[in-house]
Amino acid sequence: MNTEARIDKWLWAARIYKTRTLAAEACKNGRITINGAQAKPSRTIKAGNEIGVKKPPVTYTFRVLQPIERRVGAKLIPEILENITTPDQYELLELSRISGFVNRAKGTGRPTKKDRRAIDDFSDAAPVFLDEDFFDLEDE
User: Fold this and answer.
1) pLDDT tens column, 110-132
2) Residue 137: inside a domain, yes or no?
3) In a domain, 37, yes or no
4) How many helices (H) and strands (E) does the chain have?
5) Which domain holds residue 27?
6) Do 30 and 80 lie in a common domain?
7) 72 and 114, same structural domain?
8) What digits encode the pLDDT tens for the residues 6-58?
9) Does residue 119 or residue 140 have the better pLDDT?
10) Are 11 and 41 in contact (CB under 8 A)?
11) Number of domains the chain contains
């Protein structure tokens, strides 16, 4: 059994990222931390390390139980890592889902018909706090 593993391989093997390439890109872009320090894809991890994974709007935190480099079945993931993400991070995720507002990446083009309808529903549901007496122009 290995005592160390590369972080990019571990992120892929633990099913946090779909491909090792995505895991390596996340490391290069500064989205992965090991015990609070930025990590390069080739950095090695050991059992007991805390891994921070930024997937906006949430920062997930995992504790390494086994440093593996080969992908395992989904049922074995609890033996590989422990999810120690704080509840406030999950509240952030839930708030972003409830708000209905989705940040569109620049350059993705126009909203689809479904997106436009969702935006319209969101803006129509917003309460209007206008005092009708404020706009009464007859007093002037």
Assistant:
1) 888 888 888 888 777 656 555 55
2) no
3) yes
4) 5, 7
5) 5-85
6) yes
7) no
8) 999 999 999 999 999 999 999 999 999 999 999 999 999 999 999 999 998 88
9) 119
10) no
11) 2
136 domain residue, yes or no: no
Residues 39 and 91 in one domain: no
**Domain annotation covers residue 138:** no
Q: Is the model's pLDDT at 134 over the cut of 60?
A: no
The residue behind tokens 């490391």 is: 27
**What's the full length of the chain, in residues?**
140
Query: Could you report the per-residue pLDDT of 74-117, keeping only the tens digit for each?
Result: 999 999 999 999 888 888 888 777 776 556 667 777 888 888 88
- The span from the CA of 35 to the CA of 59, in Å, is 13
Distance CA 5, CA 8 (A): 9
Distance between CA atoms of residues 14 and 18, nearest Å: 10
12 & 80 share domain: yes
Cα separations in angstroms, 35 against 39, 47, 128, 129: 9, 12, 47, 48
What would the two tokens of residue 34 be? 């090991």
HSE-up of residue 45 (Cα within 13 Å, Cβ side): 33
| Token output for 71 | 């992908």
Confidence of residue 68 (pLDDT cuts 50, 70, 90): very high
30 and 11 in a common domain:
yes
Q: How far apart are CA 51 and CA 35, in angstroms?
A: 6
